[in-house]
Amino acid sequence: MAKKAKTVFMCQECGYESPKWMGQCICGAWNSMVEEKVVEIDEKDKRRRTSIGAKGTAGGGLGASGIAEGVRAGRPAKLSQIDSGEKERIDTGIGELNRVLGGGLVPGSLTLISGEPGIGKSTIIIQAAANIAATQGTVLYVSGEESEEQIKMRADRVCRQLPDSLFILAETNMENIDAVCQQIKPAFLIIDSIQTMYSAELDSAPGSVSQVRACGNDLMRIGKMHNIPIFIVAHVTKNGDLAGPRIVEHMVDCVLSFTGDRSHEMRILRAQKNRFGTTSEIGAFEMAEEGLIEIENLSGTLLEEMGTGSEGAVATAVYEGTRPLVLEVQALTSPTNIGFARRTSIGVENSRLNMILAVLEKKMGLKFIDQDVYVNIVGGLRPEGTYTDLAVAMAVYSSYRGKPLGSNTVVLGEIGLTGDLRAVQNGEKILKEAVKLGFERIVLPVKNADRLKKVVADVNASRKDAGSRPVKVIGMKNIAEMRNLFE
Fold first, then answer.
1. CATH of the domain spanning 95-295, picked from 1.10.287.3510, 1.10.260.40, 3.90.640.10, 3.40.50.300
2. How confident is the model at residue 277 (pLDDT cuts 50, 70, 90)?
3. Distances in whole angstroms, Cα of residue 326 to Cα of each of 299, 316, 329
4. How far is CA 38 from CA 1, 26, 50, 203, 370, in A?
5. What is the average pLDDT across 360-376?
6. For the segment 71-92, what is each residue's pLDDT rounded down to a tens digit?
7. Fold entry, domain 300-486
């Protein structure tokens, strides 16, 4: 007997189902409803089983206790008697990947990695798979987009040695993947990609809302039941957002974003969500012929092409996760020829740039109404926080006045609407990183300078013994004081 199908509309953002199309979903998203065909589930279908903590049988009604007949209910446990959830992590063999994950892979966790085509997602995954297979045991790489021969060609190029415990499976059916996992019992599972997977129990096409949600649930069950860490590759839209329903992001434990310009070698890996670690860590890689190579000295790489006397170029520092980074801010001001003045920024939010320009106009008397302003964080980084405010202001001022600040100066600090400078965190670690890179002048808010007096004295004492010039720390209270640095 043919199964009956009905038409529903599902939201790609939250997965909400509606019998009719809605312009705005209950989650607030506009034009996110897509049409789906849903087949009525038979009473004996396994998706009707509602066991809690253990496998049950297809139930009929509810018993006297309110629990479905034929289903074994889970028992509550005292939280104080449960073993700690801190599990031993699995080393991926890639230090920068371990850093972003919080120390390695957690058994039973689901990790979603996204990025533009050709950015290096499959490369870093096959490298991690080979490392884990050599140390942990069986690894299963499931590909729904590439053939086994294509994956082998990439593996031969980026992996020094391919262990016999690394298995490749070209498959898109979730039931078949589940059967293979039960057969070989992998220590690590890779799904490339979630948009190509489908379940035979649904009639909708792969990549649809219902299929992605069902396949995500199946993968979560496999990972949690067998304690297998799973990597899931996802596509992105033209805007850089994850393609498909947002429900997958809610189900997984960690969401990694792989970014970078394909015309340049540097790649940045960042965690947008991490239940087992911080989301402020970044991993840096360089794309080479032999695969992705870790960048250990990221600050040196970001500053290697900084000019010695360039106008509009200022070195700044931020604190990403557990390490300080020194990078370059570039600014260019140019007279506007036609229409309104342009404000273009890469790595700095436009709203933040407009605020900084407004403070410069109000507190320093500069006029940008007829000036196009361009700001760029070199290297494609998008630093979080307000560490770079003062550096952006100085770079714009340097370009506007045509006076270079100098390549031996590091500038950091937050600018308030009043023009006053606010202190930033981790000033001591940033100072030591800047000194290690050879900078001799540190400009920062006066509160940070007062806290670092003892640290500066110790640093200069050690530099004197080594025959090096002392480090000068300049504390600024107001943005107007930057004029003194350019005189």
1. 3.40.50.300
2. confident
3. 5, 6, 10
4. 16, 21, 20, 7, 58
5. 93
6. 445 578 887 877 665 568 899 9
7. Ribosomal Protein S5; domain 2 (3.30.230)
